[in-house]
UniProtKB/TrEMBL annotation:
<dbReference type="InterPro" id="IPR001705">
    <property type="entry name" value="Ribosomal_bL33"/>
</dbReference>
<keyword id="KW-0689">Ribosomal protein</keyword>
<dbReference type="GO" id="GO:0003735">
    <property type="term" value="F:structural constituent of ribosome"/>
</dbReference>
<dbReference type="InterPro" id="IPR038584">
    <property type="entry name" value="Ribosomal_bL33_sf"/>
</dbReference>
<keyword id="KW-0687">Ribonucleoprotein</keyword>
<dbReference type="GO" id="GO:0005840">
    <property type="term" value="C:ribosome"/>
</dbReference>
<protein>
    <recommendedName>
        <fullName>Large ribosomal subunit protein bL33</fullName>
    </recommendedName>
</protein>
<dbReference type="InterPro" id="IPR018264">
    <property type="entry name" value="Ribosomal_bL33_CS"/>
</dbReference>
<comment type="similarity">
    <text>Belongs to the bacterial ribosomal protein bL33 family.</text>
</comment>
<dbReference type="GO" id="GO:0006412">
    <property type="term" value="P:translation"/>
</dbReference>
<dbReference type="Pfam" id="PF00471">
    <property type="entry name" value="Ribosomal_L33"/>
</dbReference>
<dbReference type="GO" id="GO:0005737">
    <property type="term" value="C:cytoplasm"/>
</dbReference>
<dbReference type="GO" id="GO:1990904">
    <property type="term" value="C:ribonucleoprotein complex"/>
</dbReference>
<dbReference type="InterPro" id="IPR011332">
    <property type="entry name" value="Ribosomal_zn-bd"/>
</dbReference>
Length: 49
């Protein structure tokens, strides 16, 4: 079952991206390096609660 998750920037804590993940195969939190509009650079984005 795929669920929607929100990704937040680690630097400025803004919630920029919404994506989906499969909870059965990925039980831990997602971490991706994405472009943050407020920081104007590529930063680490993590899944929020």
């Amino acid at each position: 079952m795929r669920t929607k998750v929100v990704l937040a920037c680690e630097v400025c804590q803004s919630r920029n991206y919404v994506t989906e993940k499969n909870k059965q195969s990925h039980s831990n939190r997602i971490e991706m390096k994405k472009f943050c509009k407020t920081c104007q650079e590529h930063t680490l984005h993590r899944e929020t609660k």
